[in-house]
């Protein structure tokens, strides 16, 4: 996973609440067996007309936001399906940071697993950052993860909260599995204990 | 010890270790796998040279992509076939138990788990699918995860989690005629909204919930995710234990009795703390459905389409206007009587035998209205067999319904079962998002009985007029 430390980039404003993961990546594009290549289908129904041509009114089709690396939305971003294809599609498009007043739980988790930083900020601050974003490439936002601040184009800093474990994993670009396997002995012990306490738990075998 | 909730107890019983920052390594008893969210996880294991720690605690099934038409023919869509074949190669390589396409046990993963006794009370159950919350009806802690977490569970049989907050939704009383578990859940989501349960696990309680059969409880827990909750649960009781008894993979004999004794200890203690509490009266709930493109846009069948201009939040107002346009509806319009093109009866929400009986009850002796395509997609091969033993298939076919093979089908249209643009569908599934059932398709979520009523009248109809 790519490390996330600091990012200075164009931000795109998508002032909608309840942007679901079907909207981020519709089910018909989930038939891949890879993590990459989904960027061209990100926000498919908003980005393209039914005939496949681009919708020029959609922010991610406009310059400079075609190159946005930060996305700002309203409440409950990423609700619905658990598909990790949603953060994969965002990442493949180039998004490394999403900012919203609130997130759906599974999407929030999935972002961290892919080196995308989700930042939760109050609605009025999100609206202010959207105003910055609308100024385009002259108004880059900077996200400084070690210091936990978003720096606005005028230099003002907005602090944000993040779970220390997740911050560490993002900054170091660490793999969760490797970390958990450091505790493998504890998992062995747990399994022995459960085999003793609840021996009736069946295992599955299908011929 | 302080009084604990059902969630607290199952959580406590599965914590392997709590790390200094409060994150826990949580043990997973059952890992359910399907073809769409697993290929990248298996590939990850292979690339890292890791083993799958417990194949015997893992079960795989194909459901999202499978055709629901004649299965004697090869799968036409190449990318779907590739995903299914990839799963078949992966389960073989890693030794994962698997219900193949042509097995009578194949079906939607959230129907198969409980039906086979693979999902049991008190367990932690995960799957790379948000509707894993369904299994919480067994009295288990069950939730959906992303593909990176699927790989994590494969490699370690654990997941990294922080405890969720506890929420209780109590529904007291007796539902009226024609009011099903689906109507109760739509009413709850309409009440608390799609983010009402975010960060929480919801325990469903009260006499109206206790009075539901297991299929009804699964419908309720299934749509917990539509209320934003990570999981939904119902405390296991005698209804649960009788359901579990004699299921193929459930404990048998003496083991079953020991299991029941343990399961009986799991219900929330008197005085346990809930961070959020909601109470509804079953008598206040009418047959319901959605009018918009979010599951919280719920209206009673006797109601009208709400007016966006009444919304106070400007962003919500804009979004509601967009919903009306997308759905081809007008503010103030009576919802009953809106014509439908397609009726879809199926999905992990409503494709169990009890759901199909409710459909047959309405459909018997009637005909699907002219110009309406009405599909019934059972949740599993075993549900299909059971329905045929009861003669339900004959009722459906006589009425003009399509009687298809098991799978996710038109709930999300990954197989050829899709709406065409602007087609209006009365659907027993769980999501009405834009394009969910096919690009520009229009979805109204409702109960199986209400879907059957729409099929035979050709429009959204109060099922109480037909039963």
Automatic annotation (TrEMBL), chain A:
Source species, domain of life: Bacteria
Aconitase A/isopropylmalate dehydratase small subunit swivel domain: residues covered: 1-123
Keywords: Amino-acid biosynthesis, Branched-chain amino acid biosynthesis, Leucine biosynthesis, Lyase
Pfam families: Aconitase_C (PF00694)
Alphabetical list of CDD domains matching this protein: IPMI_Swivel (cd01577)
Enzyme class: lyase
Reaction(s) catalysed by this chain's protein: (2R,3S)-3-isopropylmalate = (2S)-2-isopropylmalate
Pathway named in the protein's UniProt entry: Amino-acid biosynthesis; L-leucine biosynthesis; L-leucine from 3-methyl-2-oxobutanoate: step 2/4
Gene3D superfamilies given in the database record: Aconitase, domain 4 (3.20.19.10)
GO molecular function terms noted in the UniProt entry: 3-isopropylmalate dehydratase activity
InterPro entries linked: 3-IsopropMal_deHydase_ssu (IPR004431), Aconitase/3IPM_dehydase_swvl (IPR015928), AconitaseA/IPMdHydase_ssu_swvl (IPR000573), IPMI_Swivel (IPR033940), LeuD (IPR050075)
EC number: 4.2.1.33
Family annotation (PANTHER family): 3-ISOPROPYLMALATE DEHYDRATASE SMALL SUBUNIT (PTHR43345:SF5), 3-ISOPROPYLMALATE DEHYDRATASE SMALL SUBUNIT 2-RELATED-RELATED (PTHR43345)
UniProt record similarity statement: Belongs to the LeuD family. LeuD type 1 subfamily.
Subunit organization: Heterodimer of LeuC and LeuD.
Function: Catalyzes the isomerization between 2-isopropylmalate and 3-isopropylmalate, via the formation of 2-isopropylmaleate.
Protein name, as recorded: 3-isopropylmalate dehydratase small subunit
Organism (species): Acetobacter thailandicus
Lineage: Bacteria, Pseudomonadati, Pseudomonadota, Alphaproteobacteria, Acetobacterales
UniProtKB/TrEMBL annotation, chain B:
InterPro entries in UniProt: 3-IsopropMal_deHydase_lsu, Acnase/IPM_dHydase_lsu_aba_1/3, Acoase/IPM_deHydtase_lsu_aba, Aconitase_4Fe-4S_BS, Aconitase_4Fe-4S_dom, IPM_dehydratase_rel_enz, IPMI_cat
CC cofactor note: Binds 1 [4Fe-4S] cluster per subunit.
Protein family: Belongs to the aconitase/IPM isomerase family. LeuC type 1 subfamily.
Pfam family, one: Aconitase
Keywords: 4Fe-4S, Amino-acid biosynthesis, Branched-chain amino acid biosynthesis, Iron, Iron-sulfur, Leucine biosynthesis, Lyase, Metal-binding
Catalysed reactions, semicolon-separated: (2R,3S)-3-isopropylmalate = (2S)-2-isopropylmalate
Organism for this UniProt entry: Acetobacter thailandicus
Gene3D superfamilies (UniProt xref): Aconitase, domain 3 (3.30.499.10)
Protein function: Catalyzes the isomerization between 2-isopropylmalate and 3-isopropylmalate, via the formation of 2-isopropylmaleate.
Domain of life: Bacteria
Entry GO MF terms: 3-isopropylmalate dehydratase activity
Cofactor(s) annotated in UniProt: [4Fe-4S] cluster
PROSITE patterns: ACONITASE_1, ACONITASE_2
Protein name (Swiss-Prot/TrEMBL): 3-isopropylmalate dehydratase large subunit
Catalytic activity, EC: 4.2.1.33
């Amino acid at each position: 996973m790519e490390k996330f430390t600091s990012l200075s980039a164009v931000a795109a404003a998508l002032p909608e609440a309840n942007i679901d993961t079907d909207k981020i990546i519709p089910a018909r594009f989930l038939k891949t067996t890879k993590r990459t290549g989904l960027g061209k289908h990100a926000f498919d129904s908003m980005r393209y007309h039914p005939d496949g041509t681009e919708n020029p009114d959609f922010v991610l089709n406009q310059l400079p936001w075609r190159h946005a690396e930060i996305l700002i939305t309203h409440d409950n971003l990423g609700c619905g399906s658990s598909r990790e294809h949603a953060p994969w599609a965002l990442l493949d498009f180039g998004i490394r940071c999403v900012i919203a007043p609130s997130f759906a739980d599974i999407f929030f988790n999935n972002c961290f697993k892919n080196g995308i930083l989700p930042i939760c900020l109050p609605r009025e601050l999100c609206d202010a950052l959207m105003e910055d974003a609308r100024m385009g490439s002259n108004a880059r936002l900077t996200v400084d993860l070690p210091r936990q601040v978003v720096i606005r184009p005028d230099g003002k800093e907005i602090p944000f909260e993040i779970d220390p474990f997740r911050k560490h994993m993002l900054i170091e670009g660490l793999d969760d599995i490797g970390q958990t396997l450091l505790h493998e002995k504890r998992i062995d012990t747990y399994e022995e204990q459960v085999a003793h306490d609840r021996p009736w738990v069946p295992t599955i075998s299908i011929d | 010890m302080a009084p604990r909730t059902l969630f607290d107890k199952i959580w406590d019983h599965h914590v392997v270790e709590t790390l200094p920052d409060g994150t826990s390594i949580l043990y997973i008893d059952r890992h359910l796998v399907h073809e769409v969210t697993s290929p990248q996880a298996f590939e990850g294991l292979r690339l890292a040279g890791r083993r799958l720690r417990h194949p015997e605690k893992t079960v795989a099934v194909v459901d999202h992509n499978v055709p629901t038409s004649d299965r004697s023919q090869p799968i036409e869509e190449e990318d779907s076939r590739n995903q299914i074949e990839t799963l078949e190669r992966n389960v073989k390589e890693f030794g994962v138990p698997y219900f193949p396409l042509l097995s009578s046990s194949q079906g939607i993963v959230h129907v198969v788990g409980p039906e086979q006794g693979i999902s049991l009370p008190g367990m932690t159950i995960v799957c790379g699918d948000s509707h894993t919350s369904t299994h919480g009806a067994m009295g288990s802690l069950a939730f959906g995860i992303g593909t990176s977490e699927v790989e994590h569970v494969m490699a370690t049989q654990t997941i990294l989690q922080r405890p969720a907050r506890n929420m209780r939704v109590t529904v007291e009383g007796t539902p009226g005629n024609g009011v099903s578990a689906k109507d109760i859940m739509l009413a709850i989501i309409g009440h608390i909204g799609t983010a009402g349960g975010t960060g929480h696990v919801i325990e469903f309680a009260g006499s109206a919930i206790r009075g539901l059969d297991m299929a009804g409880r699964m419908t309720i827990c299934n749509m917990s995710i539509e209320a934003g909750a990570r999981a939904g649960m119902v405390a296991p009781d005698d209804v649960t234990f009788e359901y579990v008894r004699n299921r193929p993979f459930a404990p048998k004999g003496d083991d079953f009795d020991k299991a029941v004794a343990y399961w009986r200890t799991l219900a929330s203690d008197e005085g346990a703390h809930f961070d959020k509490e909601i109470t509804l009266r079953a008598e206040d709930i009418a047959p319901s459905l959605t009018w918009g493109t979010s599951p919280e846009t719920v209206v009673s069948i006797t109601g009208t389409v709400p007016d966006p201009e009444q919304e106070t939040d400007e962003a919500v107002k804009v979004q509601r206007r967009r919903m009306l346009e997308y759905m081809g509806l007008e503010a103030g319009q009576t919802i009953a009587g809106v014509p439908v093109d397609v009726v879809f009866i199926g999905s992990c929400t409503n494709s169990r035998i009890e759901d199909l009986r409710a459909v047959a009850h309405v459909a018997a002796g009637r005909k699907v209205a002219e110009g309406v395509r009405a599909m019934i997609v059972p949740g599993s091969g075993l549900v299909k067999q059971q329905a045929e033993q009861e003669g339900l298939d004959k009722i459906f076919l006589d009425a003009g319904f399509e009687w298809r093979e098991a799978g996710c089908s038109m709930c999300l249209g990954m197989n050829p079962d899709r709406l065409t643009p602007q087609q209006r569908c009365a659907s027993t599934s769980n999501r009405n998002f834009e394009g969910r059932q096919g690009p520009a398709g229009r979805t109204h979520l409702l109960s199986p009985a209400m879907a059957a009523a729409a099929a035979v009248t050709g429009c959204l109809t109060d099922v109480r007029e037909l039963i």
